[in-house]
Amino acid sequence: MSQSITIPPHGGKLVDRVLGSEARKEALDRASSLRRVALNARTMSDLELIAIGAYSPLEGFMGEADYRSVIHDMRLAGGSCLAPPDHARRAAVCRRHLE
Q1: Is 63 helix (H, G, I), strand (E, B) or coil?
Q2: What is the dihedral of CA 14, 94, 77, 63, to 10 degrees?
Q3: How many CA atoms lie within 13 A of 24 on its CB side?
Q4: What single string gives the DSSP state of each residue in 16-57?
Q5: Among 49, 53, 52, residue whose Cα is nearest residue 41
């Protein structure tokens, strides 16, 4: 007999940024009055991964404090280790641009 084991999300919480039907409708109505921003395939992929919680505990794109902390300490500013190696790789590549 096998037991199902749920692994706790990285950082202690699973981020779910996917909007339900009513919230989605409101967001689309609001978005129609905002300036459009073109995203490339890589950024769209990152956006989707943030939305479904794959980059938990990130709730959005990193701000400067988190970004600098990841570059120097491989942790978010709040102390959580940043699990996705893709972020760590990009942070290392971009380090020279911030120094």
Answers
A1: coil
A2: -70
A3: 6
A4: -----HHHHHHHHHHHTTSPP----HHHHHHHHHHHTTTTTT
A5: 49
Which residue, among 62, 66, 55, 41, has the nearest Cα to 11 in the 3D structure?
Answer: 55
User: Which two structure tokens, joined as six digits, stand for 81?
Assistant: 């280790």
A 10 A CB-CB count for 71 gives 19
Distance in angstroms (rounded) separating the CA atoms of residues 6 and 98: 39
Using the structure block, give the residue that is written with the tokens 């967001």: 27
Residue 63 has pLDDT above 60, yes or no: yes
**pLDDT tens-digit readout, 65-96:** 988 888 788 888 988 887 545 555 555 555 54
